[in-house]
Amino acid sequence: MRKPLIAANWKMYKTPTESLAFLRDFLPLVKHHTRDDIAIFPTMSSLAYVIEACQDTRVDVGAQTMHWLNEGPYTGQTSPTMLASIGCDHILLGHSERRIYANETDDMVNWKLKAAIAHGLVPIVCVGESLEKRQSGLTEAVLRWQLACALNGVTPSPNSPITIAYEPVWAIGTGSSASPKQISEAHTIIRHEVAARLGDEAGENTRVIYGGSVKADNIASLMAEPDIDGALVGGASLDPHSFAKIIQYAYSLE
Ligand code: PEP
Predict the structure, then answer these.
(1) 214 in ligand 1 pocket by Cβ < 6 Å?
(2) Which DSSP category does 61 fall into?
(3) pTM above 0.70, yes or no
(4) Does 251 have pLDDT greater than 80?
(5) How far is Cα of residue 97 from the mean position of the Cα atoms in its chain?
(6) Which residue in 29, 74, 88, 124 has the fewest CB atoms around it within 10 Å?
(7) Are 178 and 169 in contact (CB under 8 A)?
(8) Closest-CA residue to 88 (of 63, 59, 66, 56)
(9) 70 CB neighbour count, 10 Å cutoff
(10) How many CB atoms lie within 10 A of CB 127?
C-alpha cells in the first residue's frame, strides 16, 4: 500500500543557523515515527547542513528546484548531479510559486522530472489550478494538461517513485484549505491521468498528496480521506512543534 508522506516546504525562509535550530527541536519529536515518510525541503543555502543533520534519522531532505542539465553556463542554477553529490535525494518540481515567479513552464517540469529520474532523485511534482480556472470550471482540464505535459515520455523507475502534490494555487498561503471533497475529486482525476500516462500499476502506487494551508487543526480531516496520501506543508512547517503536531495529528506518534 502507499505509505503516506508529510513534507515541509520551507520556501525562502530560514538561514542555515535557523534550519539547524529547527532540527534540534524537531528531530527528537519524530524520532520514533515510522507510519509516514517525512521530508524537508529547505533553501539551497541550508541544504547541505540539513542533509548532514538528518543523516541517520527518518527524515528525508530535498531541494525546492533544480536545472535539468548536469552543468553549463546557467548562472544561479543547481544541477541534479550537484544535488546528488551532496546526498540530496528528493526534489520538488513545478511548485506554483516557481511557475508564477520564475516562469517555469510545463515543458521544464517535464525535463526536470526526467532528469530527476535519471539521477535517482525522488520527485514531488506539483500541479494545481488557479482560482480563475476553478471558477471557470477548468480544474479537471488544468490538472490533466499539467500531468500530460509533466509525464510526457517519462519512464517510471523504482529508484525514483513519483509523488504528485495537488496544490490548488488559491489555497496556498491563504489560510483556507480546499475541502476534503474538492481534494478527493482532484485526486481521483490525478490518479486516472497518472494511470493513463504511466499504466495502471503506477496509477495505483503513485502517492497523491495535498498542499494548501494545511495546519494542525485541519490535517486530521484531510487524512481521513482514503485517497489523500499525505500533505505538503508550507507556512505551518516552519515551526518545529507545529510541523511535528501535523505529523502527530495525521497519525499518532508511535
Ligand atoms: C506550499 O508552499 O507548498 C504550501 C502548501 O504552502 P502553505 O501550506 O503555506 O499553504
Answers:
(1) yes
(2) E
(3) yes
(4) no
(5) 13
(6) 74
(7) no
(8) 63
(9) 12
(10) 28
Q: Is 218 a pocket residue for ligand 1 (Cβ < 6 Å)?
A: no
Mean pLDDT within 63-79: 98
Whether 133 contacts 142, CB under 8 Å? yes
- Cα angle 168-39-116, degrees, rounded to a multiple of 5: 80
Q: Which amino acid is at 63?
A: A
Residue of 97, 166, 167 to mutate, ligand 1, most atoms within 8 A of C-beta:
167
pLDDT tens for 176-194 read 999 999 999 999 999 999 9
In this model, does residue 252 exceed pLDDT 70? no
- Helix, strand and coil in the chain, % to nearest 5: 45, 15, 40
DSSP summary character for residue 31: T
The type of residue at 12 is: M
* Residues catalogued as catalytic: 95, 167
The DSSP annotation for 113-138 comes to HHHHHHTT-EEEEEE---HHHHHTT-
Cα 220 from chain centroid? Answer: 19
Q: CA angle at residue 67 from 66 to 72, to 5 degrees?
A: 135
Is the pLDDT at 253 greater than 60? The verdict is: no
Determine the Cα–Cα distance for residues 5 and 210; give it in Å rounded to an integer. 10
pLDDT of residue 250: 61
Answer yes or no: is pLDDT of 254 > 50.
Answer: no
Task: Kindly report the protein residue whose alpha carbon is nearest to atom 8 of ligand 1.
Answer: 234
Whole-number Å distance, alpha carbon 73 to ligand 1 midpoint, is 32
